[in-house]
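Justification of resources, computational component.

The compute hours requested in this renewal are based largely on the per-chain cost of generating structure records like the one below. Each record pairs the submitted sequence with a full structure-token output. That output is archived, and it is also reused by downstream analysis tasks.
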Amino acid sequence: MALKYLEISGGRPLFGEIQIQGSKNAALPILASCILSEGTCRIGNCPAIQDVEDTLEIMRGLGCSVSRRGDAVWVDASGIRTWEIRAEQAARIRSSVLFLGALLGRFGEAVLPRPGGCAIGGRPIDLHQKALEQLGASFHGFGPIRAEAKKLKGSRIRLPFPSVGATENCVLACALAKGESWIENSAREPEIDELCAFLNRRGARIWRTDPGTLYIQGVSRLEPADWEISPDRIVAGTYLMAAACTGGSICVRGCSGEALAAVGKVFRQMGAEVWNQGNQWAVAVKGRLQGIPYLETRPYPGFPTDLQSPLMAALCVASGRSRIRETIFENRFSTAWELKKMGAEIWIQGNLACIEGVSRLKGDMVRATDLRGGAALVLAGLQAEGTTRIYGCEYIERGYEDICRDLGGAGARMRTKVTFGGDEK
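The structure output for this chain reads:
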């Protein structure tokens, strides 16, 4: 049986410039929104990652015509023949839950098996359900999620937590609902505003009345449109951290100053030099990074949970003690056990991680169990003495187009290898 892994020879600082791929977290809801109307939408700068491919496969299963040429994807939802998503497709990707709002908005019915995705803790969809019920949807039975609504009607929805997925599902359902809707305590991530901007280009009427409230005036139909996906701020943050923890200097192109503001602040706390001009960010480190006494992950504009694992990897070799409190997902510290194999000193107390910086990490055989944890292991391998093998690298491919290409261009010595019963390629 073939077994793929990443092999990294560490201990080398990274230098260079990287053009950042299209955003995973923007592409997935925008693709789901294409099924709200007939006609062909062109989505440019659409990242060639596994999560996008799994989303496109779901769309083909529904009856959409889908094609890709280069970095652009064309979706024609005119031929949709079912509103039921197959179990094996939903199991591969958490964002399959976004089809709930889109299918209800277009057809008034949706059947969706429980979504899959990374093992980073419980991510119940009760927020999605309760919000959609306020628009007139009803849910039936156990097991698969079965929802129907004769006609969605606008409502005032207040989310108990600014969930990104629940906000996106509400936006998708409200776009074609009758009347006016307000989504209060909505998520404020840039990808939410990008989804709204795409829908507005197609004829929707959505705007923010204040930072946490979205106002939606339902329309009767949407038109097809072209869109260019923005660069991925999480990939950009990962690569900047790769430079910081290896003692190098990298410039990433494409991300706005606002998108990475919280990340830039953390870099400065760690003693790195940070520059931002327009859509370019650069970081440089001379000497050892400094630990961070205390940091919490927070919804945007706070420090993103998606960069918590890469930050932990960087802090493993920072001077002094650091503490990170994870407030979004309860199982996002699982990578700590793999980092400890490499010599990291980390203690987990509930949702708090305490990291005592060591002088160096040592290469070892480790396994990724989720997307961002896999990226963290790459950062650990880049700064470690010797060779690191990362198994489970298919998780990394869910969100990074080609991490070997991107970081290899900045001087990283890493490549993907495959074993066949002991033989390597």
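Residues 233-246 form the longest helix (14 residues). The radius of gyration is 22 Å.
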